[in-house]
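REQUEST FORM: STRUCTURE PREDICTION
Request ID: SP-0412
Submitted by: Lab K.M.
Chain count: 1
Length (residues): 133
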Amino acid sequence: MPQPDGRRMDPAPENDVIEVFSAGVETHGVDPMAVAVMREAGVDISHHRSKHVKEFQDSQMDVVITVCDHAKETCPYFPLPGKKVHQGFADSPALAKELARNGGDETAQLDCYRKVRDEIRAFVEKLPDNVLL
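STATUS: Completed
RESULT:
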């Protein structure tokens, strides 16, 4: 699931402490199911595009947060003083595909995305304190 724009999920959007960039170690396009469940939460990601982390490899980052184990293992080096933090979330597309293979309907598949969306929201609401420990 594409990472949501943290500024839009931040309970205090006037907080200018965090500038969010989102990328992955692979690009797959923006998942329509992710777009649908984010829309339910009032966040429009339909205009987002899938970006590869290499687009940011020359950027100075204070904190790089990986959200899946594959990214944690394959994320390229970011120059210091950036801190690397891993916060794992389930792979909602993989879970939804597994459900579909086993006869799960679209509602059950969307529930995989909703669960991860809500977990990401809870994580984002605690930023930056939860990564600056």
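NOTES: Residues 106-125 form the longest helix (20 residues).
Reviewed by: T.R.
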